[in-house]
Amino acid sequence: MKELRGHLCENVPLKPYTSWRVGGPAQRLYKPKDSADLLHFMKQLTPEEPLLFLGLGSNTLVRDGGVKGTVVITQGALCQLQVEDGTTIRAEAGVASPTFARFAARKNLCGAEFLAGIPGTIGGALVMNAGCDGAETWDIVRTVETFNRHGKKRIRFPSEYQIAYRSVSVFPDEHYLAATFQLKPGSKEASLEKIRTLLHYRAATQPTNEPSCGSVFRNPPGDYAARLIESSGLKGFKIGGASVSVKHANFIVNDNHASAADIEALIAVVRNVVFTKHRIQLVLEVHIVGEL
Questions:
Q1: Domain boundaries, given as residue ranges, for the chain
Q2: What pLDDT score was predicted for residue 1?
Q3: For a disulfide at 229, which of 40, 93, 151, 249, Cβ 3.0-4.6 Å?
Q4: What gap in Å lies between CA 106 and CA 64, rounded to an integer?
């Protein structure tokens, strides 16, 4: 690797980079300096190199065997955030979703308040069409900027993707660099109050002070994963250091002693019990990566 401005190291534990605080090491880990440095880094990767991007490491379970290839950390690198032509905001993929929500509010723009309740980055929100409070990320996307393994950038539009609940189609070998979001004129005070109300409700109903990934399962049509799990008698159920949250049944929390294997085993038990009792197959919202 030549003329890199970021930090490249080997055999790096990924626990500090995931919201569940579990997971084995990355074979290689790169923290780019900025987007230009990331594209320069990408141009030097061999085509066969496995590649994983992590923002805040939420919505991701890294297995105990770690990750082969290279893990790129976008938080702190892809962090540019600016208003364009009045009601459009451009945000790079490493910007934290709550940071985006507050930035928009302080610019008297509304429509992004729901992002304050999503514990991840803009890149992660784009990948999974993250949502909260009845709104979804791609509802406000105007364009996305992507890049490939050759460091080549391009602009894409929402019409080029298949977008659904917690799901967005992908173009092979393309990753999100940034996006522009179309918002509406609003009131800073009203938007900030809406954010405060959302965060207060989230703190009251979710285990925000414990290591988790956010919601583990998608809500099935016409129902809620949390209701199905709770009605199956699984609140508080534990395997090793992992347990179904007693505060919100669609959260699995780490008591600081869990392994990724504990969490994955608990996920399997929850799915099996819910299916046995309700004949509903819960679909994972979390992405499981790495080696056993």
A1: 7-73, 81-205, 225-289
A2: 76
A3: 249
A4: 41
Looking up tokens 């522009």 gives 180
> How far apart, in whole angstroms, are the C-alpha atoms of residue 282 and residue 131?
18
Alpha helical stretches, state H, 107-235: 122-128, 188-205, 225-231
Tell me phi and psi for residue 223, to 5 degrees: -150, 180
Residues 255-269 have a mean pLDDT of: 96
Q: Thinking of the domain 81-205, which architecture would CATH place it in?
A: 2-Layer Sandwich (3.30)
Tell me which amino acid residue 41 is. Answer: F
The answer to whether the CB of 84 falls within 8 A of the CB of 146 is no
CA distances from 139 to 115, 158, 192 (A): 12, 9, 20
Task: Pick one of 3.90.1300.10, 3.20.20.140, 3.90.550.10, 3.90.78.10 as the CATH number of 225-289.
Answer: 3.90.78.10
Question: Is 189 a catalytic site residue?
Answer: no
Q: What is the torsion angle, in degrees rounded to the nearest 10, for the CA atoms of residue 80, residue 82, residue 88 and residue 94?
A: 20
| Catalytic-labelled residue, pool 92, 166, 245, 271 | 166
Which of 97, 215, 232, 243 is the catalytic position?
215
Q: Is the separation of the CB atoms in 167 and 129 below 8 Å?
A: yes
Is 160 known to be catalytic? no
Range 7-73 has CATH code 3.10.20.880: no
Mean pLDDT of 124-151: 95
Strand bridging mode 184-185 / 163-164:
unpaired
Report residue 148's pLDDT band, with 50, 70 and 90 as the boundaries.
very high
Verify whether residue 215 is a known catalytic residue.
yes
- pLDDT at res. 131: 94
Give the per-residue pLDDT at 199.
Answer: 96
Three-class DSSP labels, 143-170 = EEEEECCCCCEEEECHHHCCEECCEECC
